[in-house]
UniProtKB/TrEMBL annotation, chain A:
Protein name per the record: Protein glxC
SUPFAM superfamilies: Alpha subunit of glutamate synthase, C-terminal domain
Gene3D superfamilies xrefs: Glutamate synthase, alpha subunit, C-terminal domain
Superkingdom assignment: Bacteria
Signal peptide from the UniProt entry: none
GO MF annotations, alphabetized: oxidoreductase activity
InterPro entries found in the cross-reference section: Glu_synth_asu_C_sf, Glu_synth_lsu_3
UniProtKB/TrEMBL annotation, chain B:
Sorted UniProt keywords: Glutamine amidotransferase, Transferase
SUPFAM superfamilies cross-referenced by the UniProt entry: N-terminal nucleophile aminohydrolases (Ntn hydrolases) (SSF56235)
Natural source organism: Streptomyces finlayi
Pfam families: GATase_6 (PF13522)
Database matches in PANTHER family: AMIDOPHOSPHORIBOSYLTRANSFERASE
InterPro entries from the UniProt entry: GATase_2_dom, Ntn_hydrolases_N
Domain called Glutamine amidotransferase type-2: residue spans: 2-294
GO molecular function list: transferase activity
This protein's name: Glutamine amidotransferase
Length: 233, 294
């Protein structure tokens, strides 16, 4: 069994031997270092609540809420993740090499979430400042009620993209199945191309041309109650 | 919250291990539904031997030997935990008639050419032991763990709901308009065994199949009529089907290899399957009916 003290080198935690609680307790005590998590087998709550600049690599598929509430840490999942990946992240970087299930990046305030594959429904729901970059496509109701931050989708978006959006910026390279209430396509100006370039660079998706993206945002018609909009509320 | 998992085996070499695989899946689904659980087995060597149809019962109200005596000399009665399975070399319809004629007052919870249904109240791992699940065999199986929301925790209220020959349905979610649809189905002649909303879904699918629709079409019709949240795994003797409602907030993950196709509420239920590391894994899209035939 690995010794869980602050490591000078990479510490390996085998979840077929140690518990998720063992892992998370050790990660919460550490202030620095690299961690390698093996045999996750879809376990929930891996590497949640980190608040130090740790580097955590998870080899295999993770369950729900992986890297939730992350601050400062870099968490890379070499596999798929379940519901609520990096939910309420504050800072740091979470990268999923496979696909992420629904509600990836939900309510996240900051940091960078990269999903190299597809993200399912409600990606970036109620996002509050996070940057989310999805290499594949996102499911329906993505960026629902998004308040701040940027969602960049290199593939397609499902139904009702950006429904009831506040101020988050959405960039989609492929087809948008439908826009949600009060979400509209907007002009791509120079600053937006710069946004896209910055996000693609941050995600290391360097072979994609920023000019291929279209921008979507809030029409700001639902901000305040208006009786003429009652059917849209 | 409830937990669903199921597998259709394509490689016959896995058939002797079906129960072992299902027990692992059930264990991983236990936290999603610790109050009761159920299992459906297609082709178990003990509960539905080749050439024998099976009828599964709750609370037969008499000893196995009394029941065997009443059903007939060719019938075998197998008590399995809170469930009793009767099998005999005749059609499922005939066996069900004979079982009902035995006057036991038992609830019939499954019937089919080779379908056995086991369910009960208790922790899923305890029930798996009661069912002897690890040693079960077969070509297809489904497990369900229930966290009851809209009706009582009883063996009758546990899933699966197997309300027509070789048909089995498990549900994670809640139907909002089940009372209306229950009344419609009763008006069409359906009889219900429980107050569970999921049984309404099963009776609806059974009614559509009885009208001549195939399983895929029946599930499309269910999507048109049922309001609420659902991820459903529905099986017949040769088909394994998955469908989710339009919102798709109830989880589902499918994994497929040359040797099997499996579905579960959570990936961890599938993590122990042989060859999972090379499986094609995806989440079913909302209101899309997925079917696999064997």
């Amino acid at each position: 069994m690995a010794t869980m003290t602050t490591p000078a080198v990479t510490t390996t935690v085998d979840l077929s031997v140690q518990s998720v609680r063992d892992l998370n307790s050790a990660l919460h005590k550490a202030r620095e270092g690299s961690w390698h998590v093996t045999r996750p087998d879809g376990a929930h709550n891996l590497a949640v609540g980190l608040d130090a600049p740790l580097d955590v690599r998870i080899d295999g598929h993770a369950g729900y809420y992986c890297a939730g509430m992350n601050q400062h840490a870099t968490v890379t999942v070499h596999g798929n993740t379940g519901v609520g990946t990096a939910e309420n992240m504050m800072s740091g970087t979470v990268r999923v090499r496979g696909n992420a299930s629904q509600s990836a990046g939900a309510t996240a305030h900051g940091g960078l979430l990269v999903v190299e594959g597809d993200a399912a429904a409600r990606c970036g729901i109620s996002m509050k400042g996070v940057d989310i970059v999805v290499g594949g496509s996102v499911g329906h109701m993505s960026a629902f009620m998004g308040q701040a931050g940027r969602l960049l989708v290199c593939g397609d978006a499902g139904d009702a993209l950006g429904d009831s959006l506040y101020e988050a910026r959405i960039y989609v390279r492929g087809r948008v199945k439908s826009l949600g209430a009060d979400c509209v396509e907007k002009e791509m100006r120079g600053e937006h191309l710069e946004d896209v370039r910055e996000l693609l660079t941050a995600a290391a998706f360097t072979d994609i041309d920023p000019s291929e993206f279209r921008r979507y945002g809030s029409a700001r018609a639902l901000y305040h109650f208006d009786v003429d909009n009652s059917s849209a509320y | 919250m409830c937990g669903i998992a199921g597998i259709q085996v394509r490689d016959p070499a896995l058939e002797p291990r079906l129960g072992w695989l299902l027990a692992g899946m059930l264990h991983q689904a236990a936290e999603r539904g610790p109050d009761s659980a159920g299992v459906a087995l297609y082709g178990d060597a003990l509960l539905s031997p080749p050439g024998h149809a099976s009828v599964s019962l709750l609370a037969p109200g008499m000893t196995p030997s009394e029941l065997a005596e009443r059903v007939g000399p060719d019938a075998t009665v197998v008590p399995v935990g809170q469930t009793t399975v009767v099998h005999a070399p005749c059609s499922a319809g005939e066996l069900e008639k004979r079982v009902r004629a035995a006057g036991t007052g038992a609830t019939v919870i499954g019937r089919g050419a080779d379908l056995a249904v086991l369910k009960g109240v208790g922790h899923p791992d305890t029930l798996a032991e009661e069912f002897g699940l690890r040693s079960a065999t077969g070509r297809q199986g489904v497990v369900h763990t229930r966290m009851a929301t809209e009706s009582a925790v009883t063996p009758e209220g546990a899933h699966p709901f197997a309300v027509a020959d070789d048909l089995c349905l498990v549900h994670n979610g809640s139907f909002a308009n089940h009372a209306t649809l229950r009344r419609e189905l009763i008006a069409e002649g359906a009889e219900f065994d429980s107050a569970n909303d999921s049984e309404v879904g099963a009776r609806f699918v059974a009614a559509r199949l009885a009208e001549g629709h195939d399983l895929e079409k029946s599930l499309r019709l269910l999507c048109e009529r049922f309001d609420g949240f659902y991820t459903l795994l529905v099986t017949t003797g040769d088909t394994f089907a998955v469908v989710r409602d339009a919102i798709a907030c109830k989880p589902a993950v499918v994994a497929e290899t040359d040797a099997w196709v499996a579905m579960a509420s959570e990936y961890r239920c599938l993590a122990g399957l042989p060859g999972i590391e090379n499986a094609r894994i995806f989440e079913p899209e909302p209101e899309e009916v997925y079917t696999w035939r064997r």
